[in-house]
């Protein structure tokens, strides 16, 4: 499985502080997916065009099965990840954001301010996550079953039907 991960942060992209959420994505996904994965990592500033371009690159050229972003999902003026994501999606999957907000609300009463979303582009599943490492892990643990099933559907596999090999006759 090929996974793209994008940290969206003006300060991390400028080297003001180290990216901790991106590596947390890798750690959590290795645990919850339990599969051999290859990660393609990027850090970009909070700019709609740069975020959209990186999403398109990871989906269209790198053929990532899953693309996960972290950061930029709040309500400040520089939080533009959902807008950049929606600009490249073919199908939006609002249930991902709803599930993350509901789960996080039990721990953080301001979680409803998150605007994280998800959707598909071609055969790639794209998911926006919050910017804090603890929230990244918490959300990925909740979303793991839907991520697995979504990727299976995008790859043309029915996750509910075992794959059967039909012998060829001569």
Describe the structure.
The chain has 170 residues and is α/β, with parallel strands linked by helices. The chain has one domain (2-154): Molybdenum Cofactor Biosythetic Enzyme, Chain A. The protein contains six helices and six strands. Strands 2-1-3-6-5-4 form a six-stranded mixed β-sheet, with helices on both faces. A hairpin with a 2-residue loop joins strand 5 and strand 6 (124-129). Mean pLDDT is 92; it is low at 161-170.
Taken as a percent bin, the fraction of beta residues is: 15-25%
CATH class annotation = Alpha Beta
Radius of gyration: 16 Å
Structural class: alpha/beta
DSSP strand count: 6
CATH architecture: 3-Layer(aba) Sandwich
Oligomer: single chain
What integer is the average pLDDT? Answer: 92
Low-confidence stretches: 161-170
Could you estimate the helical fraction of the residues in percent? 40-55%
Under CATH, the homologous superfamily reads: MoaB/Mog-like domain
Helical element count? Answer: 6
Q: In total, how many domains does the architecture comprise?
A: 1
Helix and strand sequence: EHHEHEHEHEEH
* CATH topology term: Molybdenum Cofactor Biosythetic Enzyme, Chain A
Side-by-side strand order of the widest sheet:
2-1-3-6-5-4
Biggest β-sheet description: 6 strands, mixed
Shape, principal axes of CA atoms: globular
Terminal Cα span: 35 Å
How do you describe this structure in short?
This protein is α/β, with parallel strands linked by helices. 42% of the residues lie in helices and 18% in strands.
């Amino acid at each position: 499985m090929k996974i793209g991960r994008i940290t969206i942060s003006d300060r991390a992209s400028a080297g003001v502080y180290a990216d901790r959420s991106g590596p947390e994505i890798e750690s959590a996904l290795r645990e919850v997916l339990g599969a051999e994965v290859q990660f393609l990592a990027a850090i970009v500033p909070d700019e709609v065009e740069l975020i959209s371009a990186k999403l398109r690159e990871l989906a269209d050229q790198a053929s990532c099965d899953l693309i996960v972003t972290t950061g930029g999902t709040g309500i400040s003026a520089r939080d533009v990840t959902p807008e950049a994501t929606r600009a490249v999606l073919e199908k939006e999957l609002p249930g991902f954001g709803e599930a993350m907000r509901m789960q996080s609300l039990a721990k953080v009463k301001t979680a409803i301010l998150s605007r994280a979303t998800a959707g598909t582009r071609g055969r790639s599943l794209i998911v926006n996550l919050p910017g804090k490492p603890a929230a990244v892990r918490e959300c990925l643990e909740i979303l793991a079953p839907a991520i697995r099933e979504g990727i299976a559907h995008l790859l043309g596999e029915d996750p509910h039907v075992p794959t059967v090999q039909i012998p060829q006759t001569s």
